[in-house]
Amino acid sequence: MADYRLDAETRSEFGKGSARRTRRVGRIPAVLYGHGQDVVHLSLPAREFAAALRNGGSNALLTIVLDGKEQLALTKAVQRDPLKRTHEHVDLLVVRRGEKTTVEVPIIIVGEVAPDTIPNQQLNTVSIEADATKLPDSIEVDVEGRSAGQNITAGDLVLPKGSTLITDAEALVIGFLGAPTAEALEAELAEAEAEVGIEREESGDAEADAGTGDVVPEPQDQGSGESMDSAEKSADNG
What we know:
This protein is of the alpha+beta class. Helix content is about 20%, strand content about 35%. It has 5 helices and 14 strands.
């Protein structure tokens, strides 16, 4: 697990105005707490912090350097701007090498399921306890060849060595369903139409109706009323 080093600065001003000024100079307001120490208000370099999360994941181990002293920390909470998605504020938890900590780890699906099978992921993360310096970025779940009914629970996951599962072992992580047939889809559509009062015509009745009805005569030539012979005689006499 990579260790990301961030040079922090102490904050002595608080409030929305101070936070905006901090962000304008490319830093993020943050607090550091844990192990019985007083809460420390500080700021982090925005670009370096974003890179740590991007490359190391949400459980990236951070080395916070403040006033020449180093402390290991994990990101416990991040506030983001809902539109810009930039980091607005960060909560950091002090950790020590060799101690156990509980974190949420993302689940990554790999492999292709069997034909006519639909995977239905129920959990995006699972909770584990592990050494603070050996936290996994993610847990891979291989679904290669899985077919309907071959579900995967939290207890089926392969955890990193030294990790303990906190999530209920019986919790469903991924369920596998059979793809619906054309007949099943048609029946479901018919049921939905019936619920909203749409009546379907039987195919036989529709075909019978298509062959009945009034016969429309072909349009007649609407000329002057004179026959062709009369017209030719008039031309000769002229």
